[in-house]
Known about the structure:
The chain is an alpha/beta fold and 254 residues long.
Amino acid sequence: LNDLQAALDQAAPVQLQLHYQPKVALPHGRIVGAEALLRWRTAAGDEVPPEQIVSLAESAGLMVALGERVMHAACRAAAAWRAGGHPDFGIAVNVSPSQFRSPGFVESVQRCLAATGLAAAGLELEITETIAMQDIDAVIGVLHALRRLGVRIALDDFGTGFSSLAYLHQLPIHTLKIDRSFLRDFPAPRGRTTMAELVVRLGRRLKLDLVAEGIETAAQAQALERMGCRGGQGYLFSPPLAEGAFAALLAARR
Ligand code: G
Ligand code: G
Ligand code: MN
Ligand code: NA
């Protein structure tokens, strides 16, 4: 915990880094954006998994500050990539529960866009079912305020939490992200229905954009595209990359 506080205190945050995993159009893999993912290598050289960083930061009351730092860095990078020849590039940023519920959250998003010059449509905030299911009316209010800014909203890890379908229908979101656990048995032998397929059908029925996570094989990418899932992330295309490596990949794919 003291280490995390120290990592946050540093003027030049070399220990805390953002990696970027390409988000691609299916089935071919043209890069349309990226998801920003937190990485922390401690001074002692240990890699701390992002879930652990987030839960540490949450319990220490540091998550709002950390979340703002992440969003700012990701938006700054995305603005540069849009200006540098990828005008439709979209950056996806994960939002933690305490961050989403903090009173000034919508204003902090607005400030971040103003400070980085990123067009609102270039930012997609990823919220989890845990966020979405608590105090649903308040959540819907915040989501509408974010939509009024022009920001996009994705529901992350869909299907792994406890959201009810009745609530899903009410949530003003743009995108459903299909959790990578659903791709483990996918595609299935002919005739067998998979969870991935059910989620894609549900998303299409609700007229949501779909992004499948954890795509590892070309067969998965093709099957998803055939069902109508137009977005994907996964090792088939690229793992999360450090900022410089991601920029190089983006430049090479122009
Ligand atoms: O990169 P990796 O697969 O290890 O990330 C695991 C999970 O950690 C992500 O799916 C995401 O939910 C969470 N995570 C990564 N970066 C961030 C971040 O900046 N903020 C929040 N709240 N969660 C993040
Ligand atoms: O936000 P979320 O928890 O979904 O973050 C995605 C995480 O999943 C990334 O941190 C990344 O390390 C991991 N990941 C990304 N692509 C793949 C993949 O194709 N296979 C597996 N097993 N993990 C992946
Ligand atoms: Mn995510
Ligand atoms: Na996810």
